Amino acid sequence: MKEVISKKQFFIIVFIGFSITKLYVMPAVLAGFSKENSWLPTLLNFLWDLIFMLMIFSFINDKEQDYLSLLNSTFGVPTAKIIMLFYVIFFLFKAYVPIFEQKNSIELTFYETQPSLLTFMPFFLIAFYIILKGIYSYARSMEFLLSVAVIGFIIIFILSVSEGNYEYLLPAFSKPFSTTLYTEYNTLLWFGDSTYILFLLSYVKNPSEYKKTVCISYILCGIFTITFLVVFYAIFGSIAERQYYALLKMSKYSLTLSNAGRFDYLATFLLALVSIFQTALPLILGSQLLNGVFDFKNKFVSPTIVILLEITFSIITENDFFRSLNFIQTYITPFFILMSYLIPFIVFISQKRSVNYESI
Amino acid sequence: MKLKNTLKNNVSVIKNILQSDDIVFFEFETVDKVSAVAVFSESLCDKELLGKQVVEPLINLKGNFTITDAYKKITLPKVEKIDEIEKCVKKITEGEGVILFDGITTALSTACKKILARSIAEPPTSTVLKGPREGFVENLNSNVSLMRQRLKSKDFTFEKITIGKYSETSVGIMYIKGVVDNDLLKNIREKLSKIKVDGIIDSSYIINAISTRKTSLFKEVGTTEKPDVLTAKILEGRIGILIDGSPIAITLPFLLIEDFQSSEDYFVNTYRATISRFLRLSAVLIAIYLPAFFVAAQLFHLQIIPLAFIMTLVGSIKGIPLSPSVEMFVTLFIFEVLNEASVRMPRYVGIAMSVVGALVLGETAVNAGIVSTPTIMIVAISGICLYTVPDMSETLSVLRLLFLIVAGSFGGYGVILLTAVVIAYLSNFKSFGVPYLAPYSPLNFNDLQDGFFKTFYAEMEKRPEVLNSKNKTRIKVKK
Question: pLDDT at position A359, please?
Fold first, then answer.
């Protein structure tokens, strides 16, 4: 029997995987733009992605075809291949930010001495292994890591939730809507989750049956992330914008830790483990798309290319992550919008028309 | 080759094939002077039984008797007529007594095999406080009888095959018809039939031969020395394999969670069983990670250690010439050597060895300032924890070493990365088509009832779904 990503696996990927990558640098960036209202642009981003996911499913209800075949039928094979190459670049960018979030959090928090990129290099080796094992192995690993993630989040929450001053979040709607939109635009690089859904649905049997699972898990992911942001801002208040790597810093003021030692590191270790797999997701998809374009005979070729490209990006920008982040926010976000929303929208609209013509 | 009419000829052919000093050719005559020869292996055949139940009645045969007359005279439950030399030879080497008659082209094979088996006792590796204490022995028939006592149903099936060019070892496949996954059974039959080997000395030979990932650190099949455990596994839909000459039965497919389950879990209070399983899990995690994290904390992130403990630690590691990772490695090495020596050395030296190992070596090494007290403590804790799951100890000791190496080289993040590799590897690992990490990946709520949280036996209505059994229900409790 052909293997598929099960509904449970999909639920865990969306709920745990999609939320964990938003909890390192994004909370501080949000706080920088929207201060106490940082939950609002996040909510809008989640809603936007949710609406887009509903659109995807409304189309899938009509036609049980995966996104790649839809690209082919809409644009023709040669153009579709070029678009797929653009998706490879898109996924490389999508992987870049979490990779550096992980690298910097490891260097700044876990180590006494600052190690070089070389210390982080084994990550790429592991990512290569995970890519090679494929999407189903990733899904099964995420499923296995469910309890690990839950334990990690519970520890962080228990230690931090009582340390916050929730008055910092008032007034609730102090910022003008333009600021909210601006913040939303600048944090889009952490969103566009519907693109992952689009590609992940190629690995299931009846995509339309996954609608409920995906929507519920994404709503839960949104609630969880926003709760996290609220607690984060309540703890740090006006200095929140300088607290990058929120996941590692939120619990450090707990009184329990001063007596028992930094056992919150246990939680950060657990969540770092989950992050490794989640960071590998865009690389897996990028590698499989690359293989789809060039149809390499050797299974090692496309993972090697993807990993080498990512390593090259990382080496070039090693000491300038925040400048790179700024560059991505300013110049690459339109590309993200194009790949995440516009192209799928065009594909679906054109397919919808063809369905209508067929029915006439 | 068919048996000839003349006894002399047949005997000389068999003598030619079986040129071994333990083969006895006992000549006798019936009352009416018909010559006959009983051929048997002195070491395998029960001579008294052969004499009383076979030769004595045959001596009383009168006149020109047929082979059927002779057959009827023998008062043994299992007698077989044979007309081929090769079959005669096979029966003799299996321990049966073969009777050849002059002027008759058919021989009689009589089941007079001597039972060479130690008595049934509790296996030393799986002792229990509550529950059955019987263990398998090296004799296949005794082991099958232990199973038959527990599974009397007509659906319980035992299939015997012979493997080994020279050893001709009997290997038995056990399962319950209607419960077992037929595809799996077919697969196992095929795998066993393809084994071409000189001899099967132990069940581990079969394990190596049928495993699909032969180089894997993780085992693909389960083993047990207890018939009650094998019965329970077969009832769940698994297949059991017993090998003549080995007290260790094989069960398959095998899941990682099985190593954390003990037969006693099913005989004690469910809450206690759940606590025990979590204890085993914690012990396994401590055994692997404690030495690694201790080294990583000392080398890379001291802040993880509480302040009061840091002060104690600094006091004890002051003046130690070795780096934390080398110190831990050396201590673990000594522990492994002591462990290896204590298993192999004669018992009477054992006490002296433990005194030398634990007291003299440990105490002196600390006093001499070669290793620190916390390191010895951590190795000791890790060593004890390792044996809470004895079936996994080989795998865990290798993993512990690997984690120690990466912790010393890359710190805590190295440990996380190696954990990621192990998880990615295991999530892809299958034991005869069944996911190794089930019921946690793929997540199966029905099968979780016998996971780390164990539910009451009466609530375990369904067999594990992951085993793909045709008959899903195992308990029907009227409510």
Answer: 47
